[in-house]
Amino acid sequence: MTRRDGGQTDWETWKDDYCDHLESEVFTEYDPTALDASDIEPFLEELSIKYGIDDVVPIYLLGGRWQPWDSFRKASVADPETAATALSSLLDEDGGALSDRLHEFNDFYAGISDSGSERMSVATLLLMITHPDRYPMYRYQMYTDFFSEFSAYEVPTGFNPGEYQLMREALERVRADLDETTEHPVSMLDIHSLLWVVHRQGLPGGSS
Predict the structure, then answer these.
(1) Are 135 and 96 in contact, with CB atoms under 8 Å apart?
(2) Rounded (10°) CA dihedral 164, 170, 174, 179
(3) What proportions of the chain, in percent to the nearest 5, are helix, strand and coil?
(4) In a domain, 178, yes or no
(5) What is the pLDDT of residue 208?
(6) What is the Cα 115 distance to its own chain's centre?
């Protein structure tokens, strides 16, 4: 699991390092829940860095697909006032129901990709790096590979906030179970790492 407490280092620690950097250096200058139009371009520049890995972190988290992130940045800079409202709403946990916040994001950013799944990945990436203890990032194939190991649930494609909430609740139960059996707090960054391992290697000790 990733390092969360006490300095223990195993693997995938760059996610913790990146989020720690955002919390201590970026979010102290740009409040992600109260962005102004003038904040948008420099704020997204601060997110779009290499930190602990040789790739820009958001692009790497999107599976190396630079197009959705690039389109997201361009759309934001082209209309920073609306972007500031949509992003602040999405990232403000006191700003209303999660499904409403996600729909508001999708209404503005519908043009960044023909794939609703990619738009959901960008939205939940932003949620995860802002609130790493609360939100897992959605990626269709990673979720499909993970849930198919444990259930008959079919992960939907497209931009589907209701289904994301169901999957988030299921992964929160996984997080809580792991939290009881490990020596350090387990975050959604750890859950992302778990999904990535199952996606790439299958279950430990399994045949895949």
Answers:
(1) no
(2) 80
(3) 60, 0, 35
(4) yes
(5) 44
(6) 17
pTM as predicted: 0.91
Backbone angles phi, psi at 114, to 5 degrees: -70, -15
Amino acid in the structure at residue 166: L
Rg (alpha carbons) of the chain, rounded to whole number: 17
Query: What domain range includes position 17?
Result: 13-201
Q: What's the rounded mean pLDDT across residues 150-168?
A: 92
Q: What are phi and psi of 140, to 5 degrees?
A: -50, -55
Q: Does residue 115 lie within any of the structural domains?
A: yes
Tell me the β-bridge partners of 56: 50
**Token pair belonging to 155:** 């992960």
pLDDT digits 0-9 by tens, 12-44? 789 999 999 999 999 999 999 999 999 999 999
| Assigned token pair, 22 | 């955002």
Helical H segments across 54-151, by residue range: 57-61, 66-78, 80-91, 98-109, 116-130, 140-148
In a domain, 43, yes or no: yes
How confident is the model over 120-133, as pLDDT tens digits? 999 999 999 999 99
Q: Tokens standing for 74?
A: 């361009």
Distance CA 98, CA 65 (A): 26
Cα–Cα distance, 92 to 90 (Å, whole number):
6
List beta partners, residue 50: 56
In a domain, 1, yes or no: no
Task: Give the per-residue pLDDT at 184.
Answer: 83
Domain count, the chain: 1
